[in-house]
Design a protein that fits this description.
Layout lengths: L1 H12 L9 H17 L2 E24 L2 E9 L1 E2 L6 E9 L7 E2 L2 E3 L2 E3 H7 L2 E3 L9 E3 L11 H5 L4 E8 L20 E5 H13 L2 E23 L6 E7 L7 H19 L9 E7 L7 H9 L7 E7 L4 E6 L2 E8 L2 E5 L4 H10 L5 E4 L22 E6 L16 H16 L8
Length: 431
Amino acid sequence: MRAMMMDWIETVVSRGIRRPGYPADDWTAAWAAERFTEFGLQDVRLAPVELPAWRPVTASLEVRLDADPARAVRVAAFALPYSRPKAVVTAPVTREVVPGAIVVPEYAFTELPQFYVRDLAKAVHDPEGVFDGLVQTLPFQLDYLDVIQGAIDGGAAGFAGGLTGVPWETRDYYVPYDAVHRDLPAVWLSGGDARRVLALVDEGPCTGTLTVEAETGPALSHNVLGTLPGASDQWVIIGSHHDAPWASAVEDATGIALVLAAARHWAGVPQEERPHNLLFLLTAGHMAHAAGTRAFIEEHRDLLGDVVLQLHLEHAARRCEVVDGRLVPTDDPEPGWWFTSPGLEDLVARALVAEDLRRSFVLPPDVFSPMPPTDGAFFHPEGVPLVHFLSAPMYLFDSADTLDKVHEAGLEPLSRAAVRIVEGTAGWRRS
């Protein structure tokens, strides 16, 4: 099974960037539907989802020292998703927000001690005892969706965030991803390029030209659905998303593989041994404010009262270390968050121990925010019982999310744990 799952992941990654509205994402949805049909699922279909597409074309920042315009730094940049799509802005360059200026703030990822998360958890599986000293580098700051709001509120002419606090050299940071249009020219600079710009700014007043070009507009993507009848009239929904910020292996080709593995397993189980009807769901537009999840909920609202469990599976990730500025995968999994509704915690905890899914936390769905930070988050305010698995490696939104970051050794145990959790719902009813 592990080899088959890796083959699925490699197939998806090989298609290229899977942002909403991109050809590779459309191909992946159709390919996944073919796998559902191949496994013997029923009612397989592609359900249309309207969403906004965003395609970066070019971005750069050129900064000149006012006292000596021959002293200049020109760097390539990556435009923030859904920021102002086309602009050429010439303005003073500053470190802090100044009205009418291009601000170049330094940006760092959040360092999260795992003993803090352990104190919030309902259960943990940490047989190695690493949570006392382990610190996880998250792929964002806590205000990551509002990262340029201060610049907008302060009347800045542009934003060029310097990724100086990111442990490796990159500008390929796909944040924010809520598909909210923010009317400000905004880009990310790699840490090294930002330091060059700021070194010039520190010498004296500077003027810069920020150039951004991107394409935006409506697009049509698709949720992928398939069902299997079970022993009751209740439902279990097993899902993930099929889009991604890049050609991303962990985010979320691994989630696709976990859902396919679940579909393949349950298709081989007799109907009377499936505890409930099963619906398998791969959603569109996670990188556009979970557009596919929201569309599914609206289309199937009458079903939600009969759902005993919504199981979402995302991100089988290797933990990486940074060596000489490079991401080096380890053999360890990134800590796993299992966002779990009240009453389901013991079931999940038993599955984690049975499959020895080390470095795992069982957490309340609202432990970090009103909804869990998952593609299936919008099921939570609907009152649907949920178990959402997710890890958050530091490279999650970056083009560095490549095949070597997949925690291959965890794929089968995660799949078996998912089966155990579904099996544990036998006899449950909500209505």
